[in-house]
Amino acid sequence: MDFFNSNSMNLLNGAIGAAVLRQQVISNNIANVDTPNFKRSDVLFEDLLQNQMQSQSFAGFHPDSRHFVFSSGNAPLQSKIVVDQQSVMNNNKNNVDIDREMTTLAQNQLRYNVMIEQMNNDLKNFRIAIEGR
Amino acid sequence: MNISNGFDISASALTAQRLRMDIIASNIANANTTRGTYVNGKWIPYQRKLVEMQAIEPSGFANALQSAVNKQAGGGVEISQVINDPTPFKRVYDPTNPDAGADGYVLMPNVDMVKEMADMISATRSYEANVTALNATKSMISKALEIGK
Q: Tens digit of pLDDT per residue, chain A (133 long)?
């Protein structure tokens, strides 16, 4: 078994990366709370993850075991930044809602802490397996 | 992915809000200054200053690559320029003032104390929000250092 490339480790990696990216995006939104014409951005990760988990992963038909396998199941999940162009919050065309950003900031931080905690746990189990106690 | 990018973003906003605060302080300090600038042998009153904020678009190859894959978080904010408020000066009747004209009226700065106070509160609150974001980034990074301990 490959521990560092296991499914849960990869997923945690991606999720932590998304949390760090979201932290930067929220910081940028807060930094530009007074900038005219600024549009807020958002990081898409959980939605994409949900989609990937719900969709039945289909694989290409391969009659011979030596053929390549085409499937959507194991594609690494990438987070994505989207700009919210739809809403207007202020009369200077800025749409940063500071309350929303602050709550998302707190939420993101907690989620990040959970994932770090989970990763620490995994590593601890791994260490137990190595040391045998 | 550069982890210290979050620091730079928040720091740029702190700098910008502090400069905005300085400008507001200058406006309040000069609310009664009738001799702001000397033009063509005549004194004109202090003109209210305003800051123009602008989002920083990160440049360079790495940033272009990141934005191409929708992973560019942005570069923070900067004050692109300080502009003069073009609203007309207030005319106050005060014949004893040495800067009064022949009709006894003197031109006073176009500083509105209420506007300055509201701007000041806005700048303070924005500054606080950015400090909170900076602390959040800091605690996340120190948490990451504890992985595997």
A: 566 777 788 888 889 999 999 999 999 999 999 999 999 999 988 888 887 777 766 667 778 878 777 765 555 677 888 888 888 888 888 999 999 999 999 999 999 999 999 999 988 988 898 898 7
Q: Hey, which residues does B107 pair with through a beta bridge? A: B91
Q: Is the pTM of this model over 0.90?
A: no
Those residues with Cβ within 8 angstroms of residue B44's Cβ, 6 or more apart along the chain or in another chain:
B36, B37, B89, B107
Residue B93 domain flag? no
Task: Note whether residue B137 is domain-resident.
Answer: yes
Tell me the nearest-neighbour CA distance from B31 into chain A, angstroms. Answer: 24
Out of A28, A33, A36, the one facing B73 most closely (by C-beta) is A28
Beta strands in B25-124 (DSSP E): 37-39, 42-44, 49-55, 77-84, 90-93, 105-108
Identify whether B101 is part of a domain.
Answer: no
Number of folded domains in chain B? 1
A80–B contact, CB cutoff 8 A: yes
Is the Cβ pair A78, B1 closer than 8 Å? Answer: no
Contacts of A98 in chain B (CB under 8 A): 125, 129
Decide if A36 touches B, using CB distance below 8 A.
Answer: yes
Residue numbers of the domain that contains B140: 5-31+49-84+113-147
